[in-house]
Amino acid sequence: MKFLLSTRYILHLLIGVALIAPGNVKADAYKSVPLSDISIRELQAAMNAGTLSSEKLVMMYQARIAKYDDRLRSMIVLAPNALEQARKLDDERRTSGPRSLLHGIPMVFKDTVDTIDAPTAGGCIGLAGTYPEDDATLVRKLKDAGVVVLGKTNLDEFNRGAEGLSSLGGQVINPYDSTRNPGGSSAGTGVAVNCWFATAGIGTETGASIRSPASNNSLVGLAPSQGLISRAGLLAISYTQDRGGPHARSVEDAAIVAWHMIGLDSEDLFTHEALGQLPATPYYEGLDKDYLNGARIGVFRDLFRKGDEFQEINGLIEQQISVIASTGAVVIDGLSTGMELVSFFPKARASGYEFREAFRGYMASRGADAPFKNLEELYASGKFLPKLGPRFADSLEADDTPEFDPEYLARLRNRGMVKSLIISMMDRYGVDVLVHPFKSLTAPPLGTSDRGPRDNPVSAITGLPAIVVPAGVNSEGLPISLEILGRPFSEPTLFKVAYAYEQMTGHRMPPAKFPALDGEDILVPTKP
Fold first, then answer.
1. Nearest to 445 by CA among 32, 211, 119, 164
2. Which of 132, 244, 412, 451 is the most buried (most CB within 10 A)?
3. Per the structure, how many domains does the chain have?
4. What is the CATH number of the domain that holds 441?
């Protein structure tokens, strides 16, 4: 993608220079915060003070994308109306004030999340340039809060992979090491947020596709409780398992984004599970750096993989658990379901049985103008990533009524069993959350799947919420993550534990190969 700096953009840069000129502001009234580190609250403070506008912020992100994304391929398309959205929100701020902490905040969305501001193609050339009729419910909620849709991110085509490869967007590149996997399937969202092409982003997952790119990109990623966030308008693999959730560079930013996506939706009956479960207080309020003092933290030993190759990261996570214990947290070690959970994962996956019908249902939502009505028509067209051909063929050969398939039904029961075992274990020991390595190996070589021995779908197969938080780097300098797992709808507790851990450790590591551009520092008032 190539962009020319507009006259309006240059004017904004000159205004920024003028604002920091001696005599224009008191030396102690503002602080200069780099775009790479700035939080949503700081962005709001700057926009309210007039040292930043949403329009200027969009331009700053567009400039970074123009400079760096040819090397990263994280973006598929930019929303053509992003600047128009931003200007309207700037005008609204001046006349009636901000709608929320997300007012004027630019975000990116995985290309399986419907937006009317940019095409949705699932990374597939056969759907390139086509628009849905409506926003996904989570997009509508975020736009109601004032979010600017900046663009759509690259991914594993139709979510069917774990390496960040699509026929429309090509191969997403890991910003720390171009020879390594960026994490999939929400690869583009992870890389874009990591390299500050946007303030935050939305990914989706069937197995680990929010958390894997978050981990590989030193980000915070939330896989929410099943039923917390509507899936209406998401191009999914599984109608019983898929979820959408945020990528952010801090726990508080993830909490702000998540809060504005939750709630009942008549288009997704799974959200009825959230009735009576939603807190009255936003997730981002009451975050306390001292929260771990007195918290009861369980160490989930089933997810520490056995084998010499896993011991480096297992050991690094052990060190982080010691750090948690040093805060005054009560750490209860040795927790187990009593089964070989990792080897049981394949028996608790039912998503492969559901793709054919999930795809048909999604295409029906696209209306009469959809280029394909079902998987059969897409397969016949040949307009998709060639390596997906055998997987599509398998889906087409499978029974289109899986609810009568005994193996499918057994896998659903297995999922329920694992969920019950974990909740019972947490209740037995009275722990608030469980902690464990998200993955016991870092990013594999580019072109290979970030699954197999790196796979951790426990949150996805159970519908339990999980948040991954940066936990440092391995001996190769690649990011690793601590995963925090909770009971259904325990997101308030997850965010509090994750925030306290993040504030104590500060393990987020921006990629050095994609540095700041000139003019990216933002003046933020030192007092609210």
1. 164
2. 244
3. 1
4. 3.90.1300.10
Whole-angstrom distance, CA of residue 232 vs CA of residue 230: 6
Burial class (CB in 10 A: 0-12, 13-18, 19+), 252: buried
2 assigned to some structural domain: no
pTM (2 decimals)? 0.95
| Residue-level pLDDT, tens digit, the chain, 528 residues | 434 444 444 444 444 444 444 345 566 899 999 999 999 999 999 999 999 999 999 999 999 999 999 999 999 999 999 999 999 999 999 999 999 999 999 999 999 999 999 999 999 999 999 999 999 999 999 999 999 999 999 999 999 999 999 999 999 999 999 999 999 999 999 999 999 999 999 999 999 999 999 999 999 999 999 999 999 999 999 999 999 999 999 999 999 999 999 999 999 999 999 999 999 999 999 999 999 999 999 999 999 999 999 999 999 999 999 999 999 999 999 999 999 999 999 999 999 999 999 999 999 999 999 999 999 999 999 999 999 999 999 999 987 778 889 999 999 999 999 999 999 999 999 999 999 999 999 999 999 998 888 889 999 999 999 999 999 999 999 999 999 999 999 999 999 999 999 999 999 999 999 999 999 999 999 987
Q: 497 in a domain, yes or no?
A: yes
Please compute, for residue 198, the number of CA atoms within 13 A of its CA located in the half-sphere on the CB side.
Answer: 34
Find the catalytic residue in 110, 141, 419, 439: 110
Catalytic residue selected from 54, 166, 209, 351: 209
Report if residue 77 sits inside a domain. yes
Phi and psi dihedrals of 222, rounded to 5?
-110, 125
Work out whether strand 479-485 and strand 521-525 pair parallel, antiparallel, or are unpaired: unpaired
Give a yes or no: residue 129 inside a domain.
yes
Determine whether 185 is an active site residue.
yes
